[in-house]
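User: Fold this; tokens only.

Assistant: Input:
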Amino acid sequence: MPKKKLVHFKENLTFPHLFQFRHSDLQKEFAIRGNWNKQFFYNQNPLVLELGCGKGEYTIGLAKAYPETNFIGIDVKGARLWRGCKTIAEENLGNAAFIRSQVDHIEKFFDMNEVSGIWITFPDPQPGKERKRLTSPQFLERYKRILKNNGIIHLKTDNLAFFEYTLGVIADSNLKLHWSTDDLYNSGTADDIMMIRTYYESMWLGIGKKICYLRFSFH
């Protein structure tokens, strides 16, 4: 393993805003499940998640843009999360945190109706592995249990097939589609969907790839 990555893993252990778990830990009750605002953020602001957050660029961007909302990014790769954790420490962001875990375990960390919104930003499209897609019916059932009734799920992807798959799931499940576009940056909209760009999103736009976006809810 490269020395730099080892240094980052070691520093990750010092960040109070990074929660990491061994598989054995997931068999236990997570201490602040259902009490993130009371026991970690110390406020009653809405709680929003970013799933598969990578380096946390979206989580950090949203936290800066909306200081009266709490944001938690989830990713399984500790080396990626180091960058986001480092930024939180350097900029003293009190409304952002990260969890190192697979999204499959999301209900271990959040209680029913605890989450106000979810962002899914450029997920692995998992070709040929529908159950592993972060917008599959199996994952949507997990989200439904932790989301508030009016909670919105946002998806940004550069993969048209994944975008169309998700539209199909929304239609088949009789969910409420609020808005969608298969070419976000030529759609005429101008809000927080376009305000924050990940490194790879900027790279894809630079080579002419289109970015798809949609948002939906269960009610």
